[in-house]
Design goal:
Length: 446
C-alpha cells in the first residue's frame, strides 16, 4: 500500500478523552474513531489488525477441531425467557422492540441461541462430541464504557460452545479450549496467563480467565512467577488425545495464578516468597464448563447407547477479539508509539523515502516495494511529499516492526537501511538483501 493512496488519519495531538496508552495510540494512529460511548468505527488500519486477529482465532479453533458458523446479532427474547436470563441479565442487555411489538435483544452472548439450534438438530450421542463457534459482534450496555476498545459496549467476541454426552468428555473439550487459547495468544505475541476464575452470571463451577499483565488492567492478579516461564511454543498437539490435553492443562494451571475474585491467601502463601507476584491484568478470554445448566433449562438432550435420554454437558468459551488489540498495544508500545508483534502487524514493513521526487530514490523504493509484494508481503510505502522527520514520526507511531529507509546518500553506496522498531537497531544492505531479509523474518508468520 502507498501511504498517499491509503486512509490513515493520524492525530498529532493526544486526544483528551484517552486515559491509557492503547486508547490514545489507537486514536492517534488512525485505527478507530468513536461513534458514540463505547461504540467505534474501525478505520482501515484498525480493521486490518482486527481481521488478522480473527484469522488467527479461526485457524487455531479449526486446528482444535471446532467448527465455525455465524449467528445473528439480534435475538428473540423468547429463548432468554426460557432460560430465565431475560430478567437476570439486567440493564447490560440492550432490549429492542420490533414493529410487530415482539421483544428482541442485541446478543450479549449466545448460549440460548446455540442450545436452541442444537436441540432442534441433534438427538443422538452418535453426533457428539460437537463444538461450534462464531466470531460476532456483541453488545453489553456497560455502565462505564472506557479505555477505548478495552471496555466497549459493542465489541467483537469469539464465542464457542461444546456439547458432550458426559462430564468427562466436556472436560476434555474444556482442556482443548485451554490449549488452543494458549496457542492463539502466543501467535499474537502475547503472554496470557490462565487463572482460576469466578463463574459470574453464566454460572457453573469450572472456569479460567486468561490475563495479560499490564499496569492498566482492570483485574488484580496473584501468581507464582513460575507461570511466566511456561510456553506452548510450536509443539505438535493432538487435540483428540485426552491425556495430552490434560497434561498441558496441568502444566499451565499447576502454578498458583488467580484473580482477586478467587484469590486464596493460604494457597498463595505456600508459594516460595521470592516467586509470589501480584500485579494487574487484562482479561482477554474465559472458558467455562457449566454442566447441564442450559441443556436442563432448554431441554437439550441426546439418546445414549442404552436408549436413555440425557441432558448434554456444555461449556462456553470466549475470546475478546477487539479487546485484544488494546491488550497487545498495552503490552507493546513506547513513548513514540505502537510496536506491533510480527504475527499481527497491519503491514509487514514500512518504506520511508527520504527524497520523494528524486528519480533514483523513487526507483529504488519502487524496486523494494515490488520485490516485497512479490514475496507475498505487504509493505506500507510512505511516498508522501513530507519531511523525513514527519515520515519517521508517523512510522514510529503506527509501529510496524521493521522500517526500510531509502535516501540518496545510502543509494550512492548501494545500500538501504533496515531498522527494528523495538530495539532501534539498524543495518545497511543492498535492496536485494533487504527484500530477502524481510521475507526470512516473516517465514511462518504471515
Ligand atoms: P469483564 O469481566 O471484563 O466485564 P466478562 O467476564 O463479562 O468481561 P465474558 O463474558 O467472559 O466477559 O466474555 C469473553 C471475553 O470478551 C472477555 O474475556 C473479554 O476479553 C471480552 N469482553 C467482555 N466484555 C467486553 C467489553 N465490554 N468490551 C470489550 N471486550 C469485552
Ligand atoms: Mg469473563
Amino acid at each position: 500500500m502507498r501511504l498517499s493512496q491509503y486512509f490513515l488519519p493520524v492525530l498529532k495531538e493526544n486526544p483528551a478523552e484517552a486515559q491509557i496508552a492503547s486508547h490514545r495510540l489507537m486514536l492517534r494512529a488512525g485505527m478507530i474513531r468513536q461513534s458514540s460511548a463505547g461504540i467505534y468505527s474501525w478505520l482501515p488500519m484498525g480493521f486490518k489488525v482486527l481481521r488478522k486477529l480473527e484469522n488467527i482465532v479461526h485457524e487455531e479453533q479449526v486446528r482444535a477441531g471446532h467448527i465455525p458458523m455465524l449467528m445473528p446479532t439480534l435475538q428473540s427474547a423468547d429463548l432468554w425467557r426460557e432460560s430465565g436470563r431475560y430478567e437476570d441479565y439486567g440493564k447490560e442487555m440492550l432490549r429492542i422492540t420490533d414493529r410487530h411489538g415482539r421483544d428482541m435483544l442485541y446478543g450479549p452472548t449466545n448460549e440460548e441461541l446455540i442450545t436452541d439450534i442444537f436441540r432442534n438438530a441433534v438427538g443422538s450421542y452418535k453426533e457428539l462430541p460437537l463444538t461450534l463457534y462464531h466470531i460476532q459482534w456483541k453488545f453489553r450496555d456497560e455502565v462505564r464504557p472506557r479505555f477505548g476498545v478495552m471496555r466497549g459496549r459493542e465489541f467483537l467476541m469469539k464465542d464457542g460452545y461444546n456439547f458432550d454426552v458426559t462430564k468427562e468428555a466436556a472436560l476434555h473439550a474444556y482442556n482443548r479450549h485451554m490449549v488452543s487459547y494458549l496457542r492463539t495468544y502466543e501467535r499474537m505475541g502475547l503472554q496470557a496467563i490462565p487463572m482460576r476464575a469466578d463463574t459470574g452470571p453464566i454460572g457453573g463451577d469450572y472456569s479460567h480467565e486468561f490475563l495479560v499483565l499490564a499496569e492498566t488492567g482492570e483485574s488484580e492478579v496473584f501468581y507464582d512467577r513460575a507461570v511466566i516461564d511456561l510456553k506452548l511454543g510450536d509443539r505438535e498437539v493432538d487435540f483428540s488425545n485426552v491425556d495430552e490435553c490434560q497434561d498441558i492443562f496441568d502444566e499451565f494451571t499447576n502454578p498458583y495464578a488467580r484473580t482477586d475474585e478467587t484469590h486464596d491467601e493460604a494457597a498463595y502463601n505456600a508459594v516460595p516468597e521470592e516467586r509470589r507476584m501480584s500485579a494487574r491484568g487484562i482479561e482477554v478470554g474465559q472458558i467455562f464448563y457449566f454442566g447441564t445448566k442450559y441443556s436442563d433449562a432448554l431441554n437439550a438432550a441426546v439418546q445414549t447407547p442404552d436408549g436413555k435420554q440425557v441432558p448434554v454437558h456444555m461449556g462456553s468459551h470466549g475470546i475478546g477479539v477487539s479487546r485484544l488489540i488494546g491488550a497487545i498495544i498495552e503490552a507493546n508500545h513506547d513513548d513514540k508509539g505502537i510496536i506491533w508483534p510480527e504475527g499481527v502487524t497491519p503491514f509487514h514493513v514500512g518504506i520511508v523515502n527520504l527524497k520523494q521526487g528524486d528519480s533514483a530514490t523513487d526507483a529504488a523504493c519502487d524496486q523494494l516495494y515490488h520485490g516485497l509484494v512479490a514475496q507475498g508481503l505487504e509493505p506500507l510505502y510512505d511516498d508522501r511529499d513530507e519531511r523525513a522527520g514527519t515520515k519517521f514520526a508517523s512510522m514510529d507511531l503506527i509501529g510496524l516492526p521493521w522500517r526500510l529507509t531509502v535516501g540518496p546518500r545510502g543509494l550512492g553506496n548501494g545500500v538501504v537501511e533496515l531498522t527494528n522498531r523495538r530495539t532501534g537497531d539498524s543495518e545497511e544492505m543492498s535492496i536485494e538483501a533487504a527484500i530477502d531479509r524481510v521475507s526470512q523474518i516473516y517465514v511462518g508468520k504471515t
